[in-house]
Amino acid sequence: MRWSKAFIPTLKENPQEAEAVSHKLMMRAGLIRRLTAGAYAYLPMGHKALKKAENIIREEMEKAGAVELLMPALQPPELWKRTGRYDDMGDVMIKFIDRHGKEIALGPTHEEIITSLVASEMRSYKDLPLVLYQIQTKFRDELRPRFGIVRSCEFIMKDAYSFDVDAENMEKNYKAMYDAYCRIFERCGLPYIPVEADPGLMGGSVSHEFMVPAEIGEDRIVTCSSCGYASSTEVAEVRCDDEASVGAVPGEKMETADTPKLKSVQEVSKFLKVSKTDIIKTLVYLADNEPIAVLIRGDHEANETKIKHYLKCKTLLLADEETVEKCTGGPMGFSGPVGLTIKKLADKSLLNAGPVVVGANKRDTHMVNAHIGRDFEVDKWLDARDITEGDTCPKCGKEIEVKQAIEIGHTFKLGTKYSEPLQAKYLNAEGKERLAVMGCYGIGINRILACLIETSSDEDGIIWPLSISPCEAVVIPVKKDNEELSREAERVYSEMINAGIDVIIDDRDKSAGVKFKDSDLVGFPFQIVIGKKSMEQGKIELKDRARGESVLVSKNEFIEYIKGEIESRKK
After folding, report:
1. pTM of the entire predicted model
2. Which domains does the chain have, with CATH numbers?
3. For residue 513, what are the contacts with CB-CB under 8 A and spacing of at least 6?
4. Mean pLDDT over all residues of the chain?
5. What does the pLDDT read at residue 352?
6. Taking the alpha carbons of 175, 180, 183, 188 in that order, is the dihedral positive or negative?
7. Cβ distance 358 to 366 under 8 Å?
8. Are 457 and 25 in contact (CB under 8 A)?
């Protein structure tokens, strides 16, 4: 490959719309270009990196026993209605009416499609186990596409699906896929962390997310270095050693306090000169359209996933202003538990809380010196909040760390979530009908590239691992107008191609400085510098992008030397 023909339009400055490091560098290095919000073109270098990630995935999927197929992006909504996810997906699903007046959806995912497909062909237990996967473009109408290809409306995903005769056999396939994911992300050079996770809209009993810690991550994970515990904060249990019941305690009488136009915990805390820990937030939710109040300490955040699981409700939404006023008698922002008639749930961190500040269910008013058990009661206690770094590990009780992360993969034990409504049945050995037990396994392929750049770059540009880099090396003749140097560069370039090395030659009529800057920006692991001084010594300079080191190697030994370096890095 020749740089002059490769279409690598590098940029000197960061594009204005780019926020994340990966977005900035992918644009500057000429890997991608934005067409419209959430949609990007992959230019040759970006496409090559994407294909290398796909090849690793294909190799590991096949090792794990999965077989590739390709399903259509156009999907009939009828299948989604049968599983109940048509409404659950809401406006995220992109839909249109075709010329025949039929509604069509652009597939955001393919659980319904694969289950319907297998259901139409599966007959006997002898047809199972079956593991199928595809690499396909998905479409989601994201409310706010962000960070370049990290959250886009059109993205490339690997999704695999397993069908088994029972849960025990599904466990075998789940483990095989889990292990394959670990190998994939290791080969891609990603600092991934598998965590326990919530299945969410996908459904099923158990799921794991594969996360890469990054500042721009929209997910949060908790890890414990002592015992190895790792979980999404959505499901991480908060350790609570105090299970004592709450009773009335002596203290000052509860009183009202004027808090004009002060709604937030921060504002009330500052105005009343109390700690956030001495304030209770009363959040009114609609759980399957039934109002319920959740009490959370002022410095904590409610965990809607935990609350939803506790209530076993299908939908959980914060109530609107009209509902809040109807339930509490007061405006939103001043809700409190005193005199509240709807069911009240409280987070366990409030067990035995001292005098607290609560909303008075009246505009511009709060109550001070309120006591749980004396001034209001709690119907149920539960773990209803996000875990924080001030908490301890739910497994071993040691110190934890909470960090932002990007999800790059997710595995699910679906059970019969889809096989039941879509009638994916088989006949067992006794001739009786049984539902296939399913698993689902997804990887966001675009995100592999973004995560690598977020975690492996410097002020000069991208630092690719050899396994994903668009090219393994770049040959740089320092002076293009020097015929001797150009001939040597061409010789080395040809020999590297013959040796099976993925190489590009920078044959542009540009200064050495521009070539070095562009090479660092794009991030090729090795730079082969053809210069006058080294040539006179019968040597070739090899620069290592990641290590920032250079070494002079004899011309006669160069090919074997660089082949050895590449092979050692790939192991």
Report:
1. 0.91
2. 16-191+413-453 (3.30.930.10), 255-382 (3.90.960.10), 471-570 (3.40.50.800)
3. none
4. 94
5. 84
6. negative
7. yes
8. yes
